[in-house]
Amino acid sequence: MWYKIIVIADWFGEMAERNKLVRDFNKAAKNAFIAGISPTLLETKITLGESAFRHAFSKFLGGGFRIKALSGRPMEKSELIEVGKVVLDNEELVRKLISLGWDTLEVHDSQGFRGCK
Fold it and tell me: Which of 8, 45, 62, 93 is the most exposed place for a label (fewest CB within 10 A)?
């Protein structure tokens, strides 16, 4: 019985850490946009993810880390890929995303249904 309580406590602790990473990412992206470092405002949220990308640490639900580029215009696929590469080039962030159970990086524009996984 105590084991189940510990498992539940670990799950909520990990969910809090995942939500904190999303909040921190959004705050950093907003500050970078305001400072003129980033040409586009980025916003993240947790999505279901893609089952084809599952790994040992994947969350059953919520394996997707979606970045929405709020540019105010439809973005080209090459621009969306560039945003994804910026994230993937940050090895520490990628390791954190994997360890917290994300398996799918999604990048979408703010208009339409255009996106990359």
Answer: 8
